[in-house]
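Action item from last meeting closed. Structure (298 res):
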C-alpha cells in the first residue's frame, strides 16, 4: 500500500483553509487543474502575526486587491469576510507569533493559456506557520550577509504573484555563497531589491536610500510603513536607484519584509559594510517602525 505523503511530511497540528473548509494541513489540497499549479496564475500575500494579531493588515489587503486587479481577477470574498477567515485560521493554529499566507488563484479549469470568459471559481488558500523568533532576534543583533545575483525576473515585479522561480534560484545561489539573502542587480548595474525583501542603504551623510517604486520592484508593505515612520521621525530619506558600488561603500545597509523590518546587512559579496555590525540608524528605523506598527521593540 502506498503511503500518503501527508502522513509523514505534513506539519502536525496545523490547520489550512481552502475554499470554505478548514482542514488539517496534510489533507488540504487543490484540484490538479488549478491554474496556479498549471500556469502560475495566482497571487499571494504574507502577513506577520504578533500576539495573535495580523500586522499592517489593511495595507496587505490593499496590496492583495491591487495585485488581483492587475491580473484581472476579483477578490474571492469581501475584505470584511476575509478578515474573519484570517482570524479563524490564526485562532485554529494557536500560533501567537507566525506568518499567515494568503493565496488566490484563478481556479481549476481545463488547461489553456486563456481562461474561459466567465472564468472558474477562484481558489482561496490560507496557511500559517510559526516564525523563528530566535532566528530573527539573532539576525537583528548580528546582521546578515547578502550575495548579489543578476535580476532575471519578468517585467511586472510590482505584482505579488506565485511565479517565484527566479527568486528561488537567487536564494539558492545566495545560500550556496554563505549569505542569507540575494540582492538582485539589473542590466544597468542598479540594485532592484532582494529575492524576498526590499533593499536599503545609508550613505556617508546619513541619508537613507531605497529604490523608487516602479514595475521593477514589489511595493513592500513593511517598506511603506517604514517610510511613513521615518518621515514622522524626520529622517533624511531618498527614493531612487542606487548602484552596487554605492551599496558596497554604504555606511549601513538593511532589508525589510513582512518577516522582518530593518534587518541589518553587514556584508555584501563578502565585503564588510560600515563597521561590520548593525548600525545606529538601522536600529533607530526599526524602533520607529515598531512603534508605528504597534510591536514591542524590546
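Sequence:
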Amino acid at each position: 500500500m502506498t503511503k500518503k505523503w501527508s502522513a509523514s511530511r505534513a506539519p502536525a497540528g496545523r490547520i489550512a483553509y481552502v475554499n470554505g473548509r478548514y482542514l488539517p494541513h496534510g489533507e488540504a489540497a487543490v484540484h490538479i487543474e488549478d491554474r496556479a499549479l498549471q500556469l502560475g496564475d495566482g497571487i499571494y500575500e504574507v502577513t506577520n502575526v504578533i500576539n495573535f494579531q495580523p500586522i499592517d493588515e489593511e495595507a496587505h489587503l490593499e496590496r492583495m486587491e491591487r495585485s488581483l486587479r492587475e491580473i484581472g481577477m476579483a477578490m474571492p470574498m469581501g475584505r470584511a469576510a476575509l478578515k474573519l477567515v484570517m482570524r479563524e485560521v490564526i485562532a485554529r493554529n494557536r500560533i501567537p507569533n507566525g506568518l499567515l499566507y494568503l493565496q488566490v488563484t484563478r481556479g481549476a479549469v481545463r488547461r489553456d493559456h486563456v481562461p474561459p470568459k466567465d472564468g472558474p471559481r477562484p481558489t482561496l488558500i490560507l496557511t500559517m506557520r510559526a516564525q523563528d523568533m530566535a532566528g530573527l532576534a539573532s539576525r537583528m543583533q548580528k546582521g546578515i550577509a547578502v550575495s548579489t545575483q543578476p535580476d532575471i525576473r519578468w517585467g511586472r515585479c510590482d505584482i505579488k504573484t506565485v511565479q517565484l522561480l527566479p527568486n528561488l534560484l537567487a536564494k539558492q545561489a545566495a545560500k550556496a555563497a554563505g549569505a542569507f539573502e540575494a540582492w538582485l542587480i539589473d542590466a544597468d548595474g542598479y540594485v532592484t531589491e532582494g529575492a524576498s525583501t526590499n533593499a536599503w542603504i545609508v550613505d556617508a551623510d546619513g541619508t537613507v536610500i531605497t529604490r523608487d517604486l516602479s514595475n521593477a520592484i514589489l511595493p513592500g508593505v513593511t517598506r511603506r510603513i517604514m517610510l511613513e515612520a521615518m518621515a514622522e521621525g524626520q529622517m533624511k530619506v531618498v527614493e531612487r536607484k542606487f548602484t552596487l558600488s554605492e551599496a558596497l561603500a554604504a555606511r549601513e545597509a538593511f532589508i525589510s519584509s513582512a518577516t522582518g523590518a530593518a534587518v541589518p546587512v553587514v556584508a555584501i559579496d563578502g565585503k564588510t559594510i560600515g563597521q561590520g555590525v548593525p548600525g545606529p540608524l538601522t536600529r533607530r528605523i526599526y524602533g520607529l517602525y515598531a512603534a508605528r506598527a504597534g510591536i514591542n521593540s524590546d
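Note appended to the action item: DSSP finds nine helices and 15 strands in the chain.
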